[in-house]
Every structure is written in C-alpha cells, then in structure tokens.
Specification:
Layout: E1 2-4, E2 8-12, E3 15-20, E4 25-30, E5 35-39, H1 42-53, H2 59-83, E6 93-95, E7 99-104, E8 114-118, H3 121-128, E9 131-134, H4 137-142, H5 152-159, E10 166-171, E11 174-180, E12 192-198, H6 201-209, H7 228-237, H8 251-254, H9 256-268, H10 273-295, H11 299-303, E13 306-310, H12 317-326, E14 331-334, H13 345-359, E15 380-382, H14 387-398, E16 410-415
Helix pairs in contact: 2-3, 6-9, 6-10, 7-10, 9-10, 10-12
InterPro entries: Anhydro_N_Ac-Mur_kinase (IPR005338), ATPase_NBD (IPR043129)
GO molecular function: ATP binding; kinase activity; phosphotransferase activity, alcohol group as acceptor
Protein name: Anhydro-N-acetylmuramic acid kinase
C-alpha cells in the first residue's frame, strides 16, 4: 500500500478479513502496526518540484518521470519489506496513489476532465512481482466526477457516529473536508466532501522562496505580523473559494505561482519573511473556516461536532489554533484515534480502494458528487506473478455470486492492532 509525497513514500502493510452481517459486510483490518516512510531520493524530489513549478513539461520528461516514479515506489516496497522482516512474495496486492502533478476537475467548455499521476503500476508490478492497482482518478473523471477528493469512503466508515456530526479536515498540500452526519441523519449515506482550497503547498513554497526549510525552520516564523488587508483581499476575490461544491483543486491554483503572487503583495507592503509566511498561513486557515461556514451545516452545528484533523498541516500549529479559535465549542482530535496514524491515512485509503477494485465492488459516492450514478470501480490493474491465486482469493472474499451478487456493501471498518 503506497502513498507518495514529495518528501517520501509512505507504505503501510495490512490484511483484511470480512464478516458477513445480515445485510452488510464488516471488514476488519489488522497488522496495522507495520507502516513506514521511505525517503524520496533527493534527485527525484528536485525533479518533481521543478516539474510542479513549471507551467508545462515536455512529453519526454513526463514519460521518463512516470517510469522513474514506478521504479522508486518498487524500490521503496523492497526497502520496507527488508526493514520489517517480511517477504515481498507474500504480499497479495499493492495499491499505489502515485504522484499527482496535474488535475483538471472543472475544465473550460470544450475540454475534458483529466489528470496526470506519475508512478506506472506496470513498473511496480514488474519490479515486485505483486499485482498492483494505481491511477484511481481517471475512472471517476470518465463518468463525470472530478477525480478528487477520494477518501470519503474510508473517513465515513471510520468516523461515523450514532448521534454526533463528524467533520474530517485533511490539510495536505490542498485541504479537503468531509462531513459525516450522525447515523440518525443518514451517516455514511449522507456524507459529502470537497477541496476547500489551499493547504501547505503555498506555505512550503514561501519557506523555500526565503531559503528556509518548512520542516526545520517553522518555529522561528510562527509569530510574524499578519497583513489582514491581504488576507481579506484574497478571501474576497478568489474565484475558486466562491465556487459552490462539488469542487476540487490542485497546485495549478494553489501552488508556487499563487504563493509568489502573495509574496509580491506582501513585499509591496514592506512585510518581512516572517510576516509573509504568517500572512499566507492565516489565509490558509481563514479559507478553511470560510468554506465550512459557507457550504457546511452552519456555525452552531459545527460547534457541536467532532472535528478530526489529519495531514501534514497538523505540524503547522497556527493553522490548528486558528480553527480552534473559529469553532471553540467543537471537539478537536487527531485521526490517530481511529487506530490509523494520520500520516498513513492516504496509504490505507489507496489500499482499500485497491482491494475493492480487485473485488469488483464500486465505492459509495458522496451526496454532493457531480454524478451519483453510475458508480465506478476505480483503479487500473497490473497483474503480478500470483495473479490467478490472488483472483481466486478475491472471489472467495467477495462471494461466489454473479454480477453484484455476493458483494454486500461495506458498512463497518474495524481497525485492530496486531497482537
């Protein structure tokens, strides 16, 4: 199970068992104590960052990086297996999230929804011998949805509550929010999500612009003076923020180019580097709060909810404190409470989607999706050396019926640590 980030490759190892209830399936994930991150080689990291900063990359570069990332992921899996004393030959299935470099969820008239995600699954399969599922977004876009966010299914199964509204805020490079009403009000059947806008992408770009490392230099730049005029101007004039969900965004909007624009606005007003970073950070937290209030269930409902936070943005303490100040009565917590470490959430999400793709079971669709039907089986399969054995296992796991028979909906996900 692989989830790529620019700084490293997060890998988790899990096994799944299914327990048939009267009208649904309860899946238990175990052995989750084994997860790790393998550092991205500096050369590849530099090439990715360079590509993300460019408006266009030549086809030869995209092709080369697609293969390069596949080899990188495969090498990371071998390193992970050696560290944790497991045999790659015993792994049934790999789910790879890849490295997203471009995502067009709402194209101009006459164009199509599309994405480019690097890390060829056939390379991973060839270098590990393990059946691999990758490229999850394309099937979603093919039926008219936007290709992101992708994790409402996992979040809903883990967080739904009998009586309380659950809100999950994932602050990665881009921020995603998911609302799961109480079970009494529909639960996972009524959940909805969207990308709220900026996450850590622009903050990290500002650190790099000033020759700083966002991982090590952050504490020194928490207390700059915020230029509230710029924050208000950005919140008021941002086209994406004023667009109603469903919607998704990526670095094309909230990446280096936007960060440099804000840096220029701050420089014009005489802001120091610390002031500039603090201003971009406040814009990020303010945009999240704005989106919750504009398109969520209302301030009172949010203040009475449980808010779970995950993603790299958790390390930016000012982001979290800003949100806590905006919603002081809400109960904030970390995704770790689910039994899945926050840093491993996306890797687990891609692993579950890989399993569902192999079973041939479509994922539930959030209520605010552009298209509710048809559901899609996401991901592209690259068969491994044990393909027939793995297919036989999947048939036994999912049921022996034809068509959709024998594939009940998954309504519960229980996480158990290895004994």
């Amino acid at each position: 199970m692989v989830m790529n980030g620019v700084t490293g490759v997060t890998i988790t190892l899990g096994s799944y068992t299914g327990i048939q209830q009267e009208d649904y399936l309860c899946i238990t994930q175990t052995d989750f104590s084994q997860y790790d991150s393998v550092v991205m080689p500096s050369k590849i990291r530099s090439e990715i960052l360079s590509m993300l900063q460019e408006d266009a990359a030549p086809p030869s570069m995209l092709s080369q990086m697609d293969a390069e990332m596949g080899h990188t992921f495969a090498n990371a899996i071998h390193i992970f297996a050696q560290r944790h004393g497991i045999s790659v030959d015993d792994i049934d299935l790999i789910g790879s999230g890849g490295q997203l470099v471009t995502l067009t969820g709402a194209p101009p008239r006459g164009q199509h929804r599309s994405n480019m995600c690097l890390g060829e699954g056939a390379v991973i399969s060839a270098k590990t011998g393990v059946t691999t599922v990758s490229d999850y977004r394309t099937a979603e876009q093919a039926v008219g949805r936007q290709g992101a966010p992708l994790f409402a299914y996992l979040v809903g199964l883990l967080l739904h509550h009998p009586t309380r509204l659950q809100i999950c805020i994932t602050i990665g490079g881009i921020t995603t929010i998911c609302f799961i009403p109480s079970d009494k009000k529909g639960g996972i059947d009524a959940m909805y999500d969207w990308d709220t806008g900026p996450g850590t992408c622009m903050i990290d770009a500002a650190y790099r612009h000033f020759g700083l490392d966002p991982q090590t230099d952050q504490p020194s730049f928490l207390h700059g003076e915020i230029c509230h005029e710029i924050v208000e101007q950005l919140l008021t004039n941002d086209e994406y923020l004023s667009t109603r969900p469903p919607k998704t965004t990526a670095r094309e909007i909230y990446g280096d180019a936007m960060a440099y624009k804000i840096i220029g606005m701050c420089a014009y007003r005489g802001c120091s580097p610390a002031d500039t970073i603090s201003t971009i950070t406040r814009f990020t937290s303010a945009s999240i709060a704005q989106q919750i209030l504009l398109y969520g269930p209302g301030r009172d409902a949010v203040n009475a909810a449980d808010i779970t936070v995950d993603g790299r943005g958790m390390a930016h303490t000012s982001l979290i404190s800003d949100l806590q100040a905006e919603f002081p009565k809400a109960r904030f917590g970390s995704f770790d409470k689910t039994g899945i470490p926050s840093n491993a959430k996306k890797a687990v999400g891609f692993a579950m989607q890989a399993m569902e793709a192999l079973l041939g079971r479509a994922l539930p669709v959030p209520t605010n999706a552009d298209v509710r039907r048809p559901n899609t089986i996401t991901g592209k399969l690259a068969p491994g050396l044990r393909w027939r054995e793995v297919m036989e296992k999947s048939v036994r796991f999912g049921g022996n019926g034809r068509g959709w028979e024998g594939l009940p909906e998954v309504r519960e996900l229980v996480v158990k640590q290895r004994e």
